[in-house]
């Protein structure tokens, strides 16, 4: 894949839920190797935008291209969807682990079913990424035996097992107790340092300031402000962004 071509481009995209306009014609791009944090108040459209990037939501208007795949077209096929999902990982707020499967089984399922890996290849891959997130010793455990932070680290490892070119994070720490947030952010910062293309919907302003290259501030379905992470968070230009950050004690 040509690194000069953006990982994601979105042009004047709109998303409606009935009469409610959630995304109101927004445009932008995510470059390869870039970490972009999307911030904003609840209901501003940031999670909806993220879910459009892997077609968990379909847009109503505009153009959206992810990893070279045009996913705005009505002729989007199941084959293209399968291709998209192998290239774009997703880490959810509520972990979405299968409770009846062990950690190892959660990690090896998709590589076997989607990528056609052998059980041995899948297990080796799972072991590699469990070690990466510091949970190699939890391979035989079940999700109910893990803390929230451990579950989220397993979810990140599961995404990495698909060898994605882009990972989307939808408020990955918001369901965690405060003392568990750091262990998840540490893994994410490591991925960022290694050059993974990441789009992160987050309220963790310290992570955004330190790990993101760029911050997009959304407000009522539009991109209200964006720029280099430190500049946007430390020197907000709009009253709306200053108010938002002050509520989080970020400025």
UniProtKB/TrEMBL annotation:
All residue ranges annotated as the ABC transporter domain in the record: 8-245
List, in alphabetical order, the GO biological process terms annotated in this UniProt record: organic phosphonate transport
Task: Write down what this protein is called.
Answer: Amino acid ABC transporter ATP-binding protein
SUPFAM superfamilies under this entry? P-loop containing nucleoside triphosphate hydrolases
Does this entry carry the keyword Cytoplasm? no
Cross-referenced PANTHER family: AMINO ACID IMPORT ATP-BINDING PROTEIN, PHOSPHONATES IMPORT ATP-BINDING PROTEIN PHNC
Family stated for the protein in its record:
Belongs to the ABC transporter superfamily.
UniProtKB keywords: ATP-binding, Nucleotide-binding, Phosphonate transport, Transport
Q: Annotated Gene Ontology MF terms?
A: ABC-type amino acid transporter activity; ATP binding; ATP hydrolysis activity
Which Pfam families does the UniProt entry name for this protein?
Answer: ABC_tran (PF00005)
* Annotated CDD domains: ABC_HisP_GlnQ (cd03262)
Q: Which organism is it from?
A: Hassallia byssoidea VB512170
| InterPro entries referenced in this protein's UniProt entry, alphabetically | AAA+_ATPase, ABC_ATPase_HisP-typ, ABC_transporter-like_ATP-bd, ABC_transporter-like_CS, MetN_ABC_transporter-like, P-loop_NTPase
């Amino acid at each position: 894949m040509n690194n000069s071509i953006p990982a994601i481009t979105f042009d004047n995209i709109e998303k409606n839920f009935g009469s409610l306009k959630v995304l109101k014609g927004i445009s932008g791009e995510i470059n390869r190797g870039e970490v972009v944090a999307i911030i904003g108040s609840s209901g501003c459209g940031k999670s909806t935008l993220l879910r459009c990037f892997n077609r968990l939501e379909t847009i109503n208007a505009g153009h959206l291209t992810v990893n070279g795949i045009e996913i705005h077209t009505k002729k989007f096929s199941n084959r293209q969807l399968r291709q998209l999902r192998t290239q774009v990982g997703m880490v959810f707020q509520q972990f979405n682990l299968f409770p009846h499967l062990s950690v190892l089984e959660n990690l090896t399922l998709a590589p076997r079913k989607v990528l056609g890996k052998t059980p041995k290849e899948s297990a080796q891959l799972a072991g590699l990424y469990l070690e990466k997130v510091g949970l190699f010793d939890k391979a035989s455990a079940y999700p109910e035996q893990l803390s929230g932070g451990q579950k989220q680290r397993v979810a990140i490892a599961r995404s990495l097992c698909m060898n994605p070119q882009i990972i989307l994070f939808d408020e990955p720490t918001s369901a965690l107790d405060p003392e568990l947030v750091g262990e998840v952010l540490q893994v994410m910062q490591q991925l960022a340092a290694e050059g993974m293309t990441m789009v992160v919907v987050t309220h963790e302003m310290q992570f955004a300031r330190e790990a993101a290259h760029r911050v997009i501030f959304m407000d009522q379905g539009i991109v209200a402000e964006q720029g280099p992470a430190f500049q946007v968070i430390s020197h907000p230009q709009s009253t709306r962004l200053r108010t938002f950050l002050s509520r989080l004690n970020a400025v």
